[in-house]
Every structure is written in C-alpha cells, then in structure tokens.
Amino acid sequence: MKLSRLFFILGLLAILSGCASSTPRMAEVRAFAAEAPKLGAYHELTERYRNTYQREQPFLSPEADAREQQLNARRQQACDDFVKLQYGLQAYMHTLGKLAGDNQYDLEDQVKNVSGGIKAWPDSGLDDRHVNAFAGLTRLISRGLTRQLQENAVNDILRDGQQPVQEVLDAMRTLLRLYDKTSDNEQKTVIGMLESEIPFLDPKRDRLLLALARSQQQQKQAEFRLIGLRYTLARKNLDAIEQQHRALVAQIPAQP
Predict the structure, then answer these.
(1) Quick one: three-class SS letters along the chain?
(2) Angle at CA 74, nearest 5°, toward 71 and 78?
(3) pTM, two decimal places
(4) CA distance 24 to 32
(5) At 13, is the pLDDT very low, low, confident or very high (cuts 50, 70, 90)?
(6) Residue 7 has what pLDDT?
C-alpha cells in the first residue's frame, strides 16, 4: 500500500506540473524564451566591434596604427564582458522557458558562460549600475535552476527580474551606440583613404591597381551599408524583447 501511495503521489505531482505548464500564460513565457536567438544580432556586432583593428589596420597611417593598437588591446578585454550581457539575458530567458515547461535548454552550460561576472568600462558607457544589474540577473538564473516547474516560480523570477533586465537591455543599447559610432569612424578611415588615393593612380600605368582599389571601395561601401541595417535590426530586437518582458511582468497576479 505504501508503494502504491508513493506512485500515486508522484503521478499526481507530474499531472499538476503538466497542468501548470499547459496554461496560456506559460505558453506565452515559452514563446518569450524562444525569442532569445534575436540576441544573435547583438552578439554579431559585438564580435565585429572586437575585430575593428584587424579590418582597418591596412588603411591606417603609422601614427594612427600605433594609437589603434593600444585601443585594440583594451577593446579585446572589454568585449569579453560585453558579450556576457547577451549570455546573461539569454540564460534568463531560457530559465523562464524551462520553468514554464520547455526542457530543450541546457542551463548549466549557460550558467558557466556568465560565471565570474563583469566589470565596468566607463569609456564605453558600461557603468556600475549595469554591472550590478548583471549580477542580479545571474543570481536569478542560479535560483531558477533549483526551482520546480510551476507558475509561481515563473512569476517570482519575472517579478525580481524586472529591474535587472531593464538595466541589462539599457547596457546593450548603450554598447550598440558605441559600436555604431566606431563603425562610422572606421568607414571614414577606410573610405576616406581609398577616395584620397585613387585619384593619384595612373589609369594606364596602374590599371590593375586602380581596378582593385575601385572594387575594394565598392565592396566596403556595400559592407558598411549592410552593417548599418544590422545595427537597426539589433536595436529593434532588443526593443521587442523588452516589450514582451514588460507584458509578462504586467500579467503577474498581485501578491496577497
């Protein structure tokens, strides 16, 4: 009888968990978690920012090259923290998805990606407020690992995640503006160098070089136009995630 009673209780708990995950609200939470791939545009632009020096180095004067080398060393370190913002927000979204009944996410590996925290980089706009928000987000992710599948757990994480998520999104938008400005400067350097040097090539003597230079100019102009669209897309994706998160938080039942 005792063994039968145990099986009955376990079965009942499984049924209750299944019911909790099958509500329309939990479906909305799972849909929110499924939007995490939209953060990939931010990641792509972070890596592009990281590799700025490698792309522009052939177009730099010796003086500018020495200056950019120093900036590059600091940029490499900073980008390790910049990309963690995306990992943290993604892990938070997946934590909610798992608590809402979606078991496709491997949260333990994602927690490793955000371990160690981040530090402030004032020159970039990433300040202590953002650092503290990221730390709060990682604590929520760790808490989510120990919670059982239930709607109350989802509501608790959403409620406590409202402010950290807002601050992390603000940090990511701030960095996107930095990336955009850096890309504009890179465009001025690259296109400016080509535009200033091409007129001095002799169409007869430097025919091949002239053709290659003009081809490079066209390719670079197209590249920068495409990257401009990627910045717009990345910002729109962050805005959409923020709106969805706000909507889920607004639906949390009032605490008694």
Answers:
(1) CHHHHHHHHHHHHHHHHHHHHCCHHHHHHHHHHCCHHHHHHHHHHHHHHHCHHHHHHHHCCHHHHHHHHHHHHHHHHHHHHHHHHHHHHHHHHHHHHHHCCCCCCCHHHHHHHHCCCCCCEHHHCECHHHHHHHHHHHHHHHHHHHCCCCHHHHHHHHHHHHHHHHHHHHHHHHHHHHHHHHHHHHHHHHHHHHHHHHHHCCCCCCHHHHHHHHHHHHHHHHHHHHHHHHHHHHHHHHHHHHHHHHHHHHCCCCCC
(2) 130
(3) 0.87
(4) 12
(5) very low
(6) 37
Query: Which tens digit of pLDDT belongs to each residue from 96-112?
Result: 999 999 888 877 778 88
Alpha carbon of residue 245 to chain centroid: 15
Mean pLDDT along residues 211-216 = 92
